[in-house]
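Minimal example, chain plus guanosine-5'-diphosphate.
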Amino acid sequence: MASDKPHMNLAIIGHVDHGKSTLVGRLLYETGNVPEHVIEEYKKEAEEKGKGTFQFAWVMDSLAEERERGVTIDIAHKKFDTDKYYFTIVDCPGHRDFVKNMITGASQADAAVLVVDGSEGIMAQTKEHVFLAKTLGINELIVAVNKMDNVDWNEDDYNKIEAEVDKLLKMVGFKPGEVQYVPISALEGGNIAEESENTPWYDGPTLLEELDDLSRPESPVDLPLRVPIQDVYSISGIGTVPVGRVETGEIRPSDKVTFNPSQKSGEVKSVEMHHEEVPKAGPGDNIGFNVRGIGKDEIRRGDVCGHSDNPPTIVDEFKAQIVVLQHPSAITAGYTPVFHAHTSQVACTITNIDKKMDPKSGEVKEENPDFIKAGDSAVVTVKPQRPMVLEKVKEIPQLGRFAIRDMGQTIAAGMCIDLTPRE
Ligand code: GDP
């Protein structure tokens, strides 16, 4: 597959059973990315079971199975391309580490397809995923109103769902130009690769055309330099070499840099990418760089490197907007889970729950509530138990997000909306 096209990570979100897996199977099939033997096998099985239609969700199941058996397949099978872009489907929010991977940048999605069952409309996870998408920095959304075959491709049903979803998205903060809608049937096909003959009332683009029409997020090259550190090496003959991915800004040899929260400064001697020295590195580049004036043990994973005249912010306290995804009981003031932001993991205490928002209207439902629980969206005050670097999401979005984890689960996702720096 041509890999010279710009790459996009795509998340498929939506309520359980609304057709996410089926749609992924259908997209891979329509773009020629399902191995022939998988199609044959499942067509046969469908016939034997007397089912008329070929179940695309099976394609995904079979790929997952093959992966478990260690057969040839890895995530290569979840790639497809359109005229303009080369897409990788990143895991859905239901999957175990989705939120953590999104936050730590392991699989940051550039855009998302929200799948909504045309006969059911907005359900609990539809709302949760939409909040999550916005919190995680996804600013472009395609709403696929699916299972239109179940409602006889009825225009009124489609319009009703579009209006309903539109209200939800506006409330969450999506702007009109950031959202596209399309009526589809992932199972039977229709408005995915080809226009459906069942929708003479719809003259918009097909789903693949809408995917091709997405705009790429701007590269944050003009923001201040931030390189979250993954590891620090000491290489004989060279010296201290921190490694990490540049999130924002640019780094060059002879730059004066500061690592926070360790508060160590030095001078960049050289920058390496793919084992070669480069004159500069920018957003998305995985680099190793040699710094003069800092010992290997003076800095560590979780530190963030920035220019010394605009160093990473060490927070004393911050305000966060969070979405609670799951919690066995309720979250109250005093709760101290682990916050995962960029490469750091720091225990933080939620010292106050400032307000709870209504997920339907976005309005403040309660000031200073006693507790919040799964499904709630809230503003909270947070006190890190150790020094940590965080930025306001409005200023440096890449360094303003975090996942809250406890008991091996992602409890919530959030963003820093205000902060008090450490003196
Ligand atoms: P997920 O939980 O969102 O991944 O949903 P699945 O892809 O597993 O689909 C759930 C069920 O809906 C399966 O039985 C699918 O066959 C069915 N389904 C998915 N898309 C369509 C569609 O376009 N039309 C109809 N009639 N059924 C669909």
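The domain at 2-212 is CATH 3.40.50.300 (Rossmann fold). Residues 66-76 have pLDDT under 50 and may be disordered.
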